[in-house]
UniProtKB/TrEMBL annotation:
<protein>
    <submittedName>
        <fullName>Uncharacterized protein</fullName>
    </submittedName>
</protein>
<dbReference type="InterPro" id="IPR036908">
    <property type="entry name" value="RlpA-like_sf"/>
</dbReference>
<keyword id="KW-0732">Signal</keyword>
<feature type="signal peptide">
    <location>
        <begin position="1"/>
        <end position="20"/>
    </location>
</feature>
<dbReference type="InterPro" id="IPR051477">
    <property type="entry name" value="Expansin_CellWall"/>
</dbReference>
């Protein structure tokens, strides 16, 4: 009983901390299409992607990426006093688990597309 409730407490704290936590990473722009969540999105929609490791370790993730609870969540990204909230629709495979991607329309909130990246953006899952 004691052990079971301690495990539950640890699991629920983990869940809360994953959702509330701020991350810092490099923002890049990506071309949406048929993504890991099973949606087909376009470059003019406000959509985002996270790393495969973040996606696959999100609480509730299973072998079926379409059913990942993160697909019902959004990325809240802030940088230089600006912010955007973009639906999470995909993951990317990279060795930088804290980076995030935004569709071109959403990326332009922070920088011209020709910049390619925006370093050190703050992001969380909301
Ligand atoms: C996360 O970052 C946002 C935006 O910079 C800030 O408003 C918020 O207080 C931070 N939250 C935590 C838990 O640090
Ligand atoms: C992404 O595409 C799906 C259809 O596959 C659509 O329902 C959803 O609204 C799109 N997301 C955004 C933010 O436009
Ligand atoms: C996000 O940006 C909007 C528009 O500039 C601003 O009103 C809002 O306070 C910002 N939110 C946060 C949490 O920074
Ligand atoms: C990004 O943050 C790191 C660690 O805080 C810092 O060393 C680096 O200079 C920052 N880069 C930019 C471009 O702000």
């Amino acid at each position: 009983m004691m052990i079971a409730s301690r495990i539950l407490l640890v699991i629920s704290c983990f869940f809360v901390s994953v959702l509330a936590q701020n991350h810092t990473g490099t923002l890049f722009n990506f071309a949406p299409g048929l993504g890991a969540c099973g949606f087909t999105n376009t470059s003019t929609q406000i959509v985002g992607s996270v790393s495969s490791s973040f996606f696959n370790s999100f609480p509730g993730a299973t072998d079926n990426p379409n059913k990942n609870p993160i697909c019902k969540k959004s990325l809240f990204i802030t940088s230089g006093g600006k912010n955007i909230t973009a639906a999470i629709v995909d993951f990317f495979v990279a060795d930088a688990p804290e980076n995030v991607g935004l569709s071109p329309t959403a990326f332009k909130t922070f920088a011209p597309l020709s910049d390619g990246i925006v370093p050190n953006v703050t992001w969380s899952v909301v």
